[in-house]
Amino acid sequence: MRCMSAKFLVCMLALAVDCKKEPEGGGNVGGADTGVIKIGEVGSMTGTEATFGTSSDRGIQLAVKEVNGAGGIKGRQIQVIALDDEGKPEEAATAATRLIASEHVLALLGEVASTRSLFMAPKAQAAKVPMVSPSSTNEKVTAVGDYIFRACFIDPFQGYVMAKFATETLKLKKAAILRDVRNDYSVGLAKVFNDNFTKMGGQIVDNESYSSGDVDFKAQLTNIKGAAPQALYVPGYYTDVGLIARQAREVGLTVPLLGGDGWDSEKLYEIGGVALEGSYFSNHYSVDDPSPRIQEFVGKFKKEYGGQVPDSLAAQAYDAAGMLFDAMKRAKDLSGPSIRDALAQTKDYKGVTGDITMDDKRNATKPAVVLKVAKGGKYEFSGRIMPEGLKQSGTEAPAESPKKTEGNTAPNAAPGNVPTPTQTPAVGATSAAQSAANTGQPQGVPAGGHPKK
Amino acid sequence: MPFFGGSALKRTGKAVRSWLPFFIAIPFLALIEQGIALNPAFRLEYAFQNINHIGIAIILAVSLNLVNGLTGQFSIGHAGFMAVGGYVSAVMLMRGPEDDPYRIFFVLAMLTGAMAAALAGWLVGKPSLRLRGDYLAIVTLGFGEIIRVIIENTPFFGGAIGLSPIPHRADFAWIWAVAIVTILVAKRLRDSTHGRAFLSVREDEVAAEAMGIDTTGYKVRAFVISAFFAGVAGALSGAFEGNLAPQSFTFVRSFEVVAMVVLGGMGSITGATIAAAVLTILPEYLRAVANLRMVIYSIALIALMLLRPRGLLGTREVWDWWRKRRPPRVPGRREASEALIDVRHATIRFGGLTAVCDFSLEIRPRELVALIGPNGAGKTTVFNLLTGVYPPSEGTIKVLGRDTRGLSPHAIAHLGCARTFQNIRLFRELTAFDNVRIACHHLTHESMAAAVRQGALSEQEEKWVAERSEEMLEIMGLTHRRNELAKNLPYGEQRRLEIARALATGPQALLLDEPAAGTNTREKTELMALIRSIRDRFGVAIVLIEHDMKLVMGVSERILVLDHGVTIAQGLPREIQSNAKVIEAYLGEKYAKEHAAQIAAAGSPR
């Protein structure tokens, strides 16, 4: 007995010590000039959010395969070391530390969820190892330090996107807003929408609010109906939005609803049903996007993974990895500071989710897509909105641009499109709060492509 | 040393010894921390990340062990208390001074968080710990989830994204200093009379109450202390990672801690410590195998539990192997004063069934009274009434002149009424010695804080308790069984141990429920002598439930006969033996004939 516990102690110590006697080689400073280049990846490969981690991993592996096939970077091959964090914040911090301290990676990719990125970021920052999050949309993530980047847009951008879509594509003049006051994400989107819609010549006829978790919205909806808007902007989460949509129809408010990526869940249609048909929300990516870049990526991805359709997490991870490799090619050497500088100078990187430019806060500036909720709960690609200042054909109206909203069934949305239940078993079961928690997006916003899609 | 009185010197020595582990540990911890600070190029960062996580896991496991292991309750909301402590302290730290070189503000924030967690523990524990069984599990599970959901939906606490950046205040030295404090507090509590009170609750709540242990009070205390340390762990975790997120405090986290306690061995502090380390390191080492990681982890956990179903260390401790036995000392004892039980017209009904009807009984000091009657006559129910297990539906019961209505069993035990049980209720997993020591609990005065400091009073009392317990074991002829687990004793000795335990509470009245059941004739004769000698030696009154007529007639001075809850006869043994009603209801004609001669000869005992 005594001997047994002694063994445990010895074992434990051995484990701890083992981490210390890592080989001397591979130190990251300057990146010794030969051998493979090690890149670390942290993701939730297991746990309740396993789909997030595995989707991202597939996107990254595809990008690695391509860059290695094309001769690698500075003549060296890339090796990605992927560690699982089980969806737990502390584990993400430990995994990042392990990659930096024991594996001596030159850069980090991950995490999907903002919360876990926030746990990783201080480690990367302290060790001066550049970190690129593919899809953490919360503003705080890149604020941790100048070595932290992201390959996705931040939340408030979506308010601009929807304002632009409403005025230019839907040609609306009057809109109302119903925002969740308890949720920074919702309040932020509502404010940006309000400012931009007004600036673009529209008029906000009513500005109402609710608190997430409310179940009765009829008072606000009746007020809104009285103001006679042409659309209602509801940048909340899918659970509340589903109920709001149904009650809106009950009080006779028939205009389309508009929203953000907080809507993005297969649960949305389960809750809201037909009441949601003809509504629009902004998102990060759509497989139906006719852009040749996206279709080429979808083709490659399907070929690599046996017909699996890439979700937006895969696409964003693919872009994050591609953006990092691009910066490493441009960097004068492979030291942390050099890669960091090159990343910061990223301009018009041709990612599948659009042209990516880093702003001075290390956030990606890139286009967003607008999806329409069609009959049966399918999401149809309805347009692509460029960031302010970047011009490139403002809104590329897709083939069947929505003219009429109500009851307009889009014929064939690409098969395998949005709701691909097979792909998201674990997520479907989460409640709004849980899912908010799970992703830890800004106050829980499903990062680009979250539960399901 | 002329300037120091002997006692002052001794006191100083005690104080030094009480804090000795810290004096030794802190320079080491500080030195190692300095070492990490110099750590070139992050090399040791990963090792210390893990070592720090182990430290936090140890604090959690050892504190939960107080509730789930020592006290035998089942709490699965430890992560909730951790969250309370973590968030309260993080909110303070984020609004606190920029720089905190001596960590004074950090300690303040940590203690505030811990107090908040302890308060939450009290609020949750106070109502739910009165209940037994699974209720606590459900309540704590609910509590943990509620806390997490509240945090998720409160912008002040950062919502779902969590709080960041929290000033980085805790590192290796802090985490491990607190881990050592936690282990020391747990160890010292466990070794004190309070620790034995915790254990008695785990082993048998009814028996514990009968021995004078306030079981609800001790459950709440264990729960609050445990919540306090969970809060400390939360505060450390936040100040170490620089982040707090509600996703860290799901029920999965609570279950991980429960797994550590179970794997370590329920109640073993060192076991919990080792299990915390193993279960933190194991998944870390399996991280590279990604998808199989949790599968291997689970299989390893199952395998360990199959190999050691009672946990790595069972209920033992690493330090038990080199602990010296206390030398036995000269006995000391409490004098019995006027003892009296006075029952007037007590009736108890269970639904429509009247178990005992209009029962009156007066027990005078040093009296030896037997309660007899057929099975189901209500004899044990009378004991349960006397000891407060049930309140009477009608009538009054006074123990030592005090009405027992509204008093719980432990309070009645404090008044001086101790009992044994028909179906032996020893603390089976504890040694004979500990069984008796627990019964001395209510005679001690030391506070929990004193127990943790291991002050002079503690030591004196511990000695006194040990002596008293040795004496009780000796009287009952169990000295040779001192260190054996109660469950391993032969049946007759278990009965005697129960009597020793009841005696140790220092009763005025001792209620023995079938002490001779299952013993042979020779043992019965010995028992008769023993009962008399106990009465003579301790001056207690003894009430005896017994079926063995020889024993009853031989030892008792007065007999009371119950049948179907009704007192059918009362009087001297000789009168009872010839009472027609008693013969019809209980003794039978055969007995009366066979013993007619003997009855005449024996007469009344003394």
Topology, please?
The complex is a heterodimer of chains A (453) and B (606).
Chain A (H helix, E strand, L loop, with lengths): L1 H17 L18 E7 L6 H20 L8 E7 L4 H13 L5 E3 L4 H14 L3 E3 L6 H4 L4 E3 L6 H13 L4 E7 L3 H16 L3 E8 L7 H10 L3 E3 L4 H13 L6 E3 L6 H7 L7 E4 L8 H13 L7 H19 L5 H9 L4 E3 L2 E5 L5 E2 L2 E6 L5 E7 L39 H4 L3 H8 L14
Chain B lengths: L5 H33 L6 H26 L7 H18 L8 H25 L6 H18 L19 H20 L1 H11 L1 H6 L4 H27 L9 H14 L4 H17 L7 H15 L33 E10 L2 E11 L4 E5 L6 H8 L7 E6 L2 E2 L5 H7 L1 E3 L12 H8 L8 H6 L2 H20 L15 H14 L4 E5 L7 H18 L2 E5 L3 H7 L2 E6 L2 E6 L1 H5 L2 H8 L1 H14 L4
Parallel strand pairs in B: 3-8, 3-9, 6-7, 7-8
Antiparallel strand pairs in B: 1-2, 1-4, 4-5, 9-10
Helix pairs in contact in B: 1-6, 2-6, 2-7, 2-9, 2-10, 2-11, 3-4, 3-5, 3-9, 4-9, 6-7, 6-9, 7-9, 7-15, 10-11, 15-17, 15-18, 17-18
What does this structure look like?
With 453 residues, chain A is of the alpha/beta class. Helices cover 40% and strands 16% of the residues of chain A. Chain A has helices spanning 2-18, 50-69, 89-101, 114-127, 140-143, 157-169, 184-199, 218-227, 238-250, 266-272, 292-304, 312-330, 336-344, 425-428, 432-439; strands spanning 37-43, 78-84, 107-109, 131-133, 148-150, 174-180, 203-210, 231-233, 257-259, 280-283, 349-351, 354-358, 364-365, 368-373, 379-385. In chain A, the strands form three sheets. In chain A, strands 7-6-8-9-10-14-15 form a seven-stranded mixed β-sheet, with helices on both faces. A five-stranded parallel β-sheet of chain A has the order 2-1-3-4-5, sandwiched between helices. In chain A, helix 5 links the parallel strand 4 (131-133) and strand 5. In chain A, helix 2 packs parallel to helix 12, helix 3 packs parallel to helix 4 and helix 6 packs parallel to helix 7 (184-199). The longest helix of chain A has 20 residues, at 50-69. Mean pLDDT of chain A is 80; it is low at 1-31 and 391-453. By secondary structure, chain B is of the alpha/beta class. Chain B folds into two domains: 52-316, ABC transporter involved in vitamin B12 uptake, BtuC (Orthogonal Bundle), CATH 1.10.3470; 341-416 and 506-602, Rossmann fold (3-Layer(aba) Sandwich). Chain B has 23 helices and ten strands. In chain B, the strands form two sheets. In chain B, strands 6-7-8-3-9-10 form a six-stranded mixed β-sheet, with helices on both faces. Chain B is elongated and about 100 Å long. The model of chain B is unreliable at 1-5 and 323-339 (pLDDT under 50). At the A-B interface, helix 1, strand 2, helix 3, helix 4 and helix 15 of A face helix 2, helix 5 and helix 11 of B.
